[in-house]
Amino acid sequence: MTENSRREFDSDEPPERLTSVDSDDGGNWHVVLGVVVAAVLIGWLVFDGLSSETYFFTVDEAVAKGDTIVGSEMRVKGRVVKGSIEGNEGTIGRDFSISHKGDTIRVSYDKALPDTFQAETEVVATGTLSSGGTLNATEVMVKCPSRYEGNPEAQHPDNIPKG
Fold first, then answer.
1. Which stretch of DSSP H or E encloses residue 68?
2. Structural domains in the chain (count)
3. Distances in Å between the alpha carbon of 54 and those of 2, 28, 61, 72, 100?
4. Tens of pLDDT, residues 53-108
5. For labelling, which of 7, 13, 69, 134 has a CA lying 20 to 30 Å from the CA of 25?
6. DSSP per residue over 3-52, as a string?
7. Does a structural domain hold residue 64?
8. Residue 96 in contact with residue 110, Cβ under 8 Å?
9. Taking a C-beta distance cutoff of 8 angstroms, is the pair 125, 150 a contact?
10. Strand 94-100 versus strand 122-129 pairing type
11. How many CB atoms sit inside 10 A of residue 133's CB?
């Protein structure tokens, strides 16, 4: 071993002190700022998520809730009551009633209804329930009629494997 290499491992010499490049002792402020920003963002996301929740009810469930859901954003599923549709077909702004298990809710919709909308079809109306019990809908979705579903009595072709 050379003299220089012995000096590197000599334990009699004190170790060199490591010093920071920027020795202003304020180097942790960016970590604290990052944690604060992250906490604020997480809090905002949680608050925003809770305030924008939408309830989903069938008509009978919504009626059972009574005044507790007035003013709340919700989706209500039911069948369009035959003879309840007011307004001309193809026009904007129609009112109708939906029912489920004997309970009925009136729906007011100020946009064009889907082409497949008709009496006795199942719909989901999204909107806010007024104190008078009318759902002021912002969206109405119609369940696809059975004519779009496959014929259950049709036979499966012999040359195509089932699976």
1. none
2. 1
3. 79, 42, 14, 8, 20
4. 678 999 999 999 988 999 988 999 999 999 999 988 778 889 999 999 999 999 99
5. 13
6. HHHHHHT-TTSPPPPP--SS-SS-TTHHHHHHHHHHHHHHHHHHHHHHHT
7. yes
8. no
9. no
10. unpaired
11. 14
pLDDT digits (tens, 9 = 90+) for 131-159: 988 999 999 999 875 555 555 566 666 77
Which residue type sits at 111?
A: K
- The structure tokens listed for 55 are 């309830």
Domain assignment present for 13:
no
pLDDT of 26 reads 61
Count of beta carbons in the 10 Å neighbourhood of residue 124: 17
Instruction: Report residue 142 as tokens.
Output: 């119609």
| CB count in 10 Å sphere of residue 45 | 10
Tell me if 131 is assigned to some domain.
Answer: yes
Domain span holding position 91: 55-145
Give the domain CATH number at 96: 2.40.50.140
* Whole-structure pTM value: 0.59
Residue 22, domain member (yes or no): no
